[in-house]
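retry 2 of 3: previous attempt timed out while embedding 6-O-phosphono-beta-D-glucopyranose. Reduced batch size to 1 and resubmitted. Inputs unchanged:
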Amino acid sequence: MSMGHCPEQRPGFEVTKDWNGADQVAIRSPRGASVRVSLQGGQVVSWRNDRGEELLFTSSKAIFKPLKAVRGGIPVCFPQFGNCGTLEQHGFARNKTWIVDDEAPPLSNGDNNNKASVDLLLKPSDDDLKCWPHCFELRLRVSLSMDGDLSLISRVRNVNGKPFSFSFAYHTYLSVSDISEVRIEGLETLDYLDNLSQRERFTEQGDAITFESEVDRVYVGSPGVIAVLDHEKKRTFIIRKEGLPDIVVWNPWEKKSKTMSDFGDDEYKQMLCVNAAAVERAITLKPGEEWTGKLELSAVPSTNCSDHLDHPGRL
Ligand code: BG6
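retry 2 succeeded.
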């Protein structure tokens, strides 16, 4: 796939308008997998496999308003994760209008080949600079491989005269058949900060993680690959990441779901957020420095997933 052309001129790409009239770029693989990303928030709003099955959750109650992240898909949290800071919850990037970046600098490590990609860019507005006075360029490359794997590569560049620090997350709403049939492998024995107990630190036990109540945790220093197994669907999501040491796991469960106006009362059963993130320790960039954070998602039949888990270094 040739790079460096406007998306609408490339085969397999389509630019449409989203619910608010913002541009949305769809990429389709030759085998039929697809991803759609909205310039509103730089948010991936759909990822489908080659059978056309949607792999990301979006709430049936999602609110489609300008400059408001939609409840679902993959909002980008930057420059703040959660409410630990002076900014709005999860930072402002998810609520801004991004642009397509036809002149994105190449990636340094061979990530430029064999994938259909679109590059997006967010720069701070005057209003953003008032609440977060740091000049940055945030780039997001969204790519789809021939096999339908989705990869997101973010780059944050400090174009400021002074250092700044930020946290970051790909707030990934996975679609699952039934949360009680889901488990996460790869986070066993790790320490986590529990957002339900004022971020107190605990250590996970040796078993895979399963769900029977509200969960809102930051697993720190997690491995580069973890797996989310959906027993009922016989589907496994393989999550590979680089530059993002933490994994946030969130399911609001019954009581909290009822307090969220853009989320159905029972929808907690069909979703699980597993977010590759840099939360525990902020990332600091000196003037001119750039940080890169990568996420790669694959959805494979559960019988094939051990191959992926055996090769954690593949990203
Ligand atoms: C999670 C946080 O990642 O996002 C939760 O850990 C939060 O604490 C959730 O409730 C949803 O956040 P928001 O701002 O999209 O409603």
